[in-house]
Amino acid sequence: MPASDYDSACLPDILPLYYRRLFPFSQYYRWLNYGGVQKNYFQNREFSFTLKDDIYVRYQSFTTQNELEKEMQKMNPYKIDIGAIYSHRPNQHNTVKSGTFQALEKELVFDIDMTDYDDVRSCCSAAEICPKCWTLMTIAIRVLDRALRDDFGFQHLLWVYSGRRGVHCWVCDKAARKLSVAARSAVAEYLSLVKGGDETMKKVVLSDPIHPFIRESLVVVERYFPLYALQDQDILGRKESVDKHLHVRKQLQQDFQNEKKPENRWNLLKDQAKRKQATSKKGQHFEKEIMLQYCYPRLDVNVSKGVNHLLKSPFSVHPKTGRISVPIDLKELETFDPFAVPTISMICEELDRPRTVEEEDKSEETIDKENEKDAAESRKIRDYKRTSLAKYVKCFDQFLDVMARSWKGELLKKSDLQKDF
């Protein structure tokens, strides 16, 4: 994934600048504090830092936003992971009686990684991605976002680009954060369709009647399949793809000799499937299974099942590409471009650009209205607003504003209950 302006050797020099002037600490704290509805919620959260030379520091925890800021500015982590809310402060876990330090809550999370699709993409492999296969991530977000909202009733979903080759979803509803390991496993299994490893040819098997969830997912998949699979991956034009996945009959392979257009070949295949269905109970959903095998989201279910599983934090930097792990605005999902996501080098350079006269005037005006402490905070806000990071922080802010309405309701309920005593 070319990030031409980025060289990982410069990280020790630019990470301090990023954490000092650009990392959106106030929004970050606002998110993980969840309105202060539950006591010690932020304080009992585990953070884990990966430092230079792959030094890995687990069970970090912080009392306040200020403490988190100071520690991150001191350690300048190459990567930040977020863990669970524990029964005790994670940084004191060694002092707690054995067996009592327990992971209690965490957002329900999903991790979709492009490497899990290597058997159904010919454009790239391993850590590489390109605009052709990025469509798979768009499909994954569309399918899972619909299911989590409509089938499970969750509302607060934060979708984040990993910075390299995948996407993460943080389901932040109170009900999701309280799910047990068994319940998380049940949700992950419900959403999993593609089963089997490299040696399994047929990874999707549908039975009658098709579950409503699969029907809804097919509506999404059918929208993208012609362009993604038939055109961009040319699955009916490449012999190895036809042989490996489609188990088509000799007759069909002969028909393919006379028909080179991908869409027409697909129609021939569907016609053959219909004829087969008329004479046998087997293969009832042949073409649907192919579409799902090529396009359906592939989840790393282990990430979703564990309450104590760590996941890379939003606004962490990806050390290999230098790209920031940014929230994805679903209103602009079709045009989201992972290659346009800013690198740390890029936003640090944007910070060094001379300010315009207008920016200077605004800056002076604001400082006059603030005391020293607020001035430092708002200077940081003005800093990121001068960079390409601004629109992603704005997207995060909008997500938090919606979630804050639910906290208000809970805080009012809480104060009413206290008045009753």
Automatic annotation (TrEMBL):
Source superkingdom: Eukaryota
GO biological process, one term: DNA replication initiation
Cell wall biogenesis/degradation listed as a keyword: no
The protein's name: DNA primase
Cofactor(s) recorded in Swiss-Prot or TrEMBL: Mg(2+); Mn(2+)
Class of enzymatic activity (EC top level): transferase
NCBIfam families cross-referenced by the UniProt entry: primase_sml
Entry keyword Cell inner membrane: no
Catalytic reactions on record: ssDNA + n NTP = ssDNA/pppN(pN)n-1 hybrid + (n-1) diphosphate
Cellular component GO terms, alphabetical: alpha DNA polymerase:primase complex
Similarity comment: Belongs to the eukaryotic-type primase small subunit family.
Alphabetized InterPro entries for the sequence: DNA_primase_S (IPR002755), DNA_primase_ssu_euk/arc (IPR014052)
Record field: compositional bias (Basic and acidic residues): 364-379
GO molecular function: DNA-directed RNA polymerase activity; metal ion binding
Disordered as annotated region, ranges: 355-379
Stretches that traverse the bilayer: none
